[in-house]
Design brief:
CATH architecture: 3-Layer(aba) Sandwich
Number of domains: 1
CATH topology: Rossmann fold
Largest sheet: 6 strands, parallel
Shape: globular
């Protein structure tokens, strides 16, 4: 079983959007997925209440630093993939979740502030690695990007990550209306077809490519999930 945490000490980096897209895309491929909403804002819980969840997807909440480890362990027994949407803060809860993760995805917008917080998150992961004496795979995911233009600041941040040999997920999360609509109507990206959402096909393709990249970073056996939705 695989556990993927979406983590950043900074709020508003796109963790919940990325986590929800990843979960729904994996379910679309036939995986059993559990999302643990460990963010006090409970945005995933609110999203789940808007529409019937797709078969194979469960959403859990009501967790805290005393229970997060047991919640993840229990979810792993019934899921192919467990996705943890962490709070936008450095906390014991986040540390415990990171320690149990096979991969930590660090959403980052193309700004110096986000880059500094991403570096802080990586230091927190490295501290857990030292405690556990094992490697915790991690990678940065650029979020809310413009498909037509990369600002100078974002290019500088990307170059800096390359210089520091910080792993970066190849496909960025593009700023799409569909991703905002998901949290207005609920359901999956495919369910938005009847709501007049623009550019839905590119949004689905973007989410599919990101999940392909994420699965490519994992060593664990997620064979049912590795099939691209296009296959």
């Amino acid at each position: 079983m695989t556990t993927i945490s979406f983590a950043s000490p900074k709020g508003g980096a796109g963790k919940t959007t990325a986590a929800t897209l990843c979960a729904t895309e994996l379910v679309r491929r036939g995986c059993r997925v559990t999302i643990i909403d460990a963010d006090p804002n409970k945005t995933v819980i609110d999203w789940a209440a808007l529409s019937r969840l797709p078969a194979g997807l469960a959403v859990l909440a009501d967790t805290c630093e005393e229970t997060i480890a047991s919640t993840i362990a229990q979810a792993r027994q019934n899921s192919d993939v467990v996705i943890v949407d962490l709070e936008g803060a450095a906390s014991l809860l986040a540390s415990y979740a990171v320690a149990m993760s096979d991969l930590v995805v660090i959403p980052v917008q193309g700004s110096q502030l986000d880059a500094r917080q991403a570096a802080r998150q990586i230091r927190l992961i490295e501290a857990q690695e030292a405690i556990l004496s094992r490697r915790i795979r991690h990678a940065v995911l650029f979020t809310r990007t413009n498909p037509a233009l990369t600002p100078k600041t974002a290019r500088f941040v990307q170059q800096r990550f390359r210089e520091l040999a910080i792993p970066v997920i190849a496909t960025p999360l593009v700023d799409r209306e569909a991703y905002r609509a998901l949290f207005s109507f609920g359901g999956t990206l495919c369910d938005l077809a009847g709501h007049g959402v623009r550019n839905l096909a590119p949004a689905i393709a973007n989410a599919t490519a990101i999940v392909d990249d994420i699965l490519g970073l994992l060593e664990t056996d997620t064979a049912p999930c590795r099939r691209s939705a296009a296959q």
